[in-house]
Each structure stands twice: as structure tokens, then as C-alpha cells.
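Morning F.,

Quick status update on the modeling queue. The single chain you submitted on Monday has been processed. Sequence for confirmation:
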Amino acid sequence: MSVLKEFKLPDVGEGLTEADIVRWHVKPGDTVAINQIIVEIETAKAVVELPSPYEGTVASLLVREGQTADVGTPIISVDVASGDGAPAEAATQREISNFEDLVPAPPVEGASEPGMIGSPAPKAERQAVLVGYGVKLGTTSRRARKTTPRQTGNGSTSTTAAAGPAPSIGTAASADDSGRTAALAKPPVRKMARDLGVDLAGLTGTGPQGSITRDDVQQAAAAGQAQPVPSQGLLARTPAGAREERIPVRGVRKHTAAAVAASAFTAPHVTEFLQIDITETMTATARLRTLAEFADVRVSPLLLVARALIVAAARHPMINSSWDEDAQEIVVKHYVNLGIAAATDRGLVVPNVKDAHALTLPQLAAALGQLAETARAGKATPADLSGGTISITNVGIFGVDTGTPILPQGEAAILAFGQVKDAPWVVDGELAVRKVCTLALSFDHRIVDGDLGSAVLRDVGAMLTDPLRMLAWS
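C-alpha cells below.
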């Protein structure tokens, strides 16, 4: 006995109402197991992989790739076998009841431990899975799958081989068009393989349980196994001779457009600029890189810029606040969730470091590095992208001196850090070549008056000119 079960698009967090279907990992006729990754979706904030809540055979895909679906819309139907005439529900006792375990919950004040960035303490003997009560670490396995006939396009039948051990949590196994099982690889590794044109199915993994690692992909690319990847750029998508192209506005681009428009036309922006001599900060950055405490983290001038802004926010708390229109109140935050604007393949995102004010300098460096890696991999969660109190945009990495950044919604200020370059500068009455950059501070003029904005910008500039001031003012 069997019954069709429909999997409805869940709300993956933060009350999102829709998502785009990015890529299906299965097709009609495939056999799926509980917790097997079946689809990638893109919400307004992040790309999320959805596991199957059912075990059975895919009957049909109800939403095409590239299509937008509302939360609650059925996206796939699965033929679930109950066996021996038992009620069909008995075969799906472990089906999904909610989606809370898939997306990290927003940080709870006081729940973090030293060195952890706003992450709640893990539950004992629990591992985040989609269904049931989870599994103990290191015991993930999948029972053997029965060999079942499947009708092929020419009328003959084919069989599906029994499945081996399931991938560990965080990896995904899927089947390609030929029916073979794809190699185990985490999402960032699969993306790297696509970018480099490496066929994962042809690699032997050296990671846990035979999973493929970044090193495996890089070695395959260096060995000449990579094939040219068709360009996904604008010209590649435009038909020959076409003078225009229409690109659907979805996902992060849609969210960003709405957010910046709302911010620009709600908060009255003011931007002030300050050019500074940052030579001593560059020297301090080079010195930090030699210290044992920073051996395992990336140290860049952005680290000291971030610390300077955190210190300035402590000296001038109103800069770290928000405007509550409904209550007609200014909400002053006595903590700093430091946002870092990141340009990704999917668009602009601003994840933030939770409770950055409470971190040591090595901890802050590690948090910034982790934030950047997560954003580049497209794995920033709704919790990562919400709750920011003040932000930095590092426009200098694009080779420009500065800009006039738009405030992230709900924040009163954002600092733009321009490129560092050699320039003539007067030092002790004499002309010298120094490392110079331009800072720009945009702020909400409903909250921040010109004197306060100027004071914050001067303080940040003073600390970057002489990093010892950070110690004196901390």
C-alpha cells in the first residue's frame, strides 16, 4: 500500500513568506530517504538546503527551478510505502513537524560562552537534524535500500542499487541523470567544484566517510581535470544580436532593493568624510600578524577599524541606536552587533558579529574571518543577517577612496573604509609619503546630530592614526 505525501515549502526563519527554487537534487522516480537533501532554495536572506521529511519514491516536482513559491505551497510529492497494509502514516512517523532545527535560532542575550559569537549552547546528545529527535554524533547511518524496478524511457526497467552508509550531517548525496550516486561533499565544496569545472563524481574523497574536501577539488583542478564552465555573465545569457535583457528580481537582490529603498526614503541620511594618516595602523597590523595569538586567524586593517568603531560606540552610545517609529522612541543599544557589508555572488548582504563589544581582539579577528567565509559561501542564516546595531562597509577592497553608504534598516550609522594608498602628508612640518585613507560616516539625522556624527568620526580617525588610543579609551 502506498500514499502520496506532499512536502510544503516551510518558513525557514524570520517569518519569510516566499523562496526561489534554486536547484533540485532529485527527479521523478528517484528513491529518497529521510533527511536526504532534495532541493536548494533561496530566500530573501540566504540559500538553504531542504532535507526530505519522507522516505519513498519521488512522484513529481511541483515547482520548477527558478520559480518563486510562497511558504506553504507544495513543492514535491513523494510516494510513501506503508508496507503490509499498515496505515500509511505509520511509515512516516518521523516526518517533519516544524523547521526550527534546520535554521539556527537568533542569539539569546547571555546565552553565549567566551569565544562563541552569539551561538546558544548545544543541547546534550543532540545534533541538529530536520526530523525526529536527532542522532548521536558519529552514528549517522542509512539502512539498506531495497532494489526496486523503475520504468525507463524506452519501456525497459532499471533497478536502484542498495544505498551504502549515509553522509554525515552537513554533506549531501544526490543522484545525477544517469542514476549514479553523487560523491559526498559539503555545499561550499560543491560550489568550488562548479566554479572550477571539476566533476565530483570522478573524485575519490579524502575526508570523513570518503567525503570530498576543498583540497581534493583544488588538486583535481591543478591536475587538469577541470573543464571549462559556461559563463553565467550578462553577455552569456543575452541572445546574439539582442539589445536588451530582462533579469527577474529575486532572492537577495529583491530583499536588498526593498531594504535600501526603505532606508533611503525613511531615514534622513547625512554623510561626513575624514582623510587620515593610517601608517601606524598598517604597522600595528603587520605586528599583530607575528603574534602567536593571531596565528590561526586573518589579520587585516579592517580588524582595527572594527575595534575603533566599537570603542567609539562605547564613548558615544547614541551612535549605536535605532528609531522606533511606532513608539516614537530612540532605542539605545548597550551592546554592539557589528555588521560587515559583504558583496557576494548573490548580492549584498550584511551579516553581523553578535556582541562584538565583548570579544577580545583575537576573538574579533576569528569572528570576522568566519563571517566573511560564511557570506562568501552563501550560507549566512537569517540569524546572521538580523539584529545588527552598527555596520562597516569596506569599499577600499574595490579600489575606491570612499562612498556614501546607505544605512542598513534599523541602524543609526555605517562607516565606509576606503582604500589605503601612498600619499604626500605633512608630518612634523615636513612633507612625507604616508599611508592614507578616507573614512565616510553615514548616519540617521533623526538620531545623530552633526556634532555627534563628527565626534564619532574624529574618534575613529584618531584611533586609526594612533592605535594606542584604543587602549586608552577602551
